[in-house]
């Protein structure tokens, strides 16, 4: 295999999670439509004058370039493709979607339909749309794309009367998949609702 085959240029994606690695670098987990979840090392990204530092933000569309053949590739370049301004509940909803993607998708398994659903949900959340419809649509597509969905036609995700029942059935299905591994974002949301 040639070196050129191990290089990806300008893949549209989103940062799902970042964690420190060594003194100046980060390990970033990104979600792209063409390549699925990919783990990358962003060398020097924690340096004050790094070109990557201001760009690597969660929930922002990015053009990502990387190289490498191992489990963790090397991020070569990242450019912003716009800004989604999220606040309050929309922010927590977006973290919830990220956690689902990290937990339920295998690495490097492309899901372009799911990527489009994630992108659309973030855009709706940034525009101030109600989170419920966006989240139910995303959860429905996630379950169907990963083979855990139901053989029914898609419901009306914007139907406020049917939303509680739809939420319950989707949560039950997700809880089955995540048995023994509860979502942290759901726990935080439950705690916040008590106040």
Q: Keywords for this structure?
A:
alpha+beta, OB fold (Dihydrolipoamide Acetyltransferase, E2P), de novo design (two linked rop proteins), 2 domains, five-stranded mixed β-barrel, 5 strands, 37% helix, globular
Description:
With 195 residues, the chain is of the alpha+beta class. The chain has two domains: 3-80, OB fold (Dihydrolipoamide Acetyltransferase, E2P); 88-193, de novo design (two linked rop proteins). It is built from five helices and five strands; from the N terminus they run βββββααααα. The protein has helices spanning 88-104, 112-126, 131-145, 163-177, 184-193; strands at residues 7-21, 25-32, 36-42, 62-67, 72-80. The chain has a five-stranded mixed barrel with strand order 1-2-3-5-4. The radius of gyration is 17 Å and the shape is globular.
Reconstruct the topology from this structure:
Elements: E1 7-21, E2 25-32, E3 36-42, E4 62-67, E5 72-80, H1 88-104, H2 112-126, H3 131-145, H4 163-177, H5 184-193
Parallel strand pairs: 3-5
Antiparallel strand pairs: 1-2, 1-4, 2-3, 4-5
What can be said about this structure in brief?
The protein is α+β, with helices and mostly antiparallel strands and 195 residues long. It is built from 5 helices and 5 strands.
Q: What distance lies between the first and last C-alpha atoms, to the nearest angstrom?
A: 57 Å
Q: Please, how many domains?
A: 2
Shape descriptor:
globular
- Proportion of residues in extended strands: 15-25%
Would you identify the CATH H-level superfamily of the largest domain? Recombination protein O, C-terminal domain
Structural class: alpha+beta
Rg result: 17 Å
Strand count? 5
The percent range for helix content is 25-40%
Question: What does the largest sheet look like?
Answer: 5 strands, mixed, barrel
């Amino acid at each position: 295999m040639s070196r050129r085959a191990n290089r990806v240029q300008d893949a549209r994606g989103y940062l799902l999670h970042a964690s420190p690695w060594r003194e100046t670098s980060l390990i970033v987990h990104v979600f792209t439509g063409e390549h699925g979840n990919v783990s990358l090392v962003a060398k020097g990204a924690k340096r004050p004058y790094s070109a990557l530092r201001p760009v690597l933000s969660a929930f922002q569309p990015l053009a990502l370039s990387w190289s490498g053949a191992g489990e963790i590739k090397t991020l070569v370049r990242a450019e912003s493709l716009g800004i989604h301004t999220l606040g309050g509940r929309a922010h927590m909803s977006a973290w919830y979607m990220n956690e689902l993607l990290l937990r339920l998708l295998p690495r490097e398994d492309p899901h372009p339909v799911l990527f489009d659903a994630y992108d659309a949900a973030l855009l709706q959340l940034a525009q101030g749309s109600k989170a419920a419809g966006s989240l139910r649509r995303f959860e429905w597509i996630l379950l169907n794309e990963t083979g855990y969905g139901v053989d029914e036609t898609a419901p009306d995700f914007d139907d406020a009367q049917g939303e509680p029942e739809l939420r319950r059935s989707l949560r039950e299905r997700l809880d089955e998949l995540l048995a023994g591994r509860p979502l942290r974002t759901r726990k935080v949301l439950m705690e916040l609702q008590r106040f």
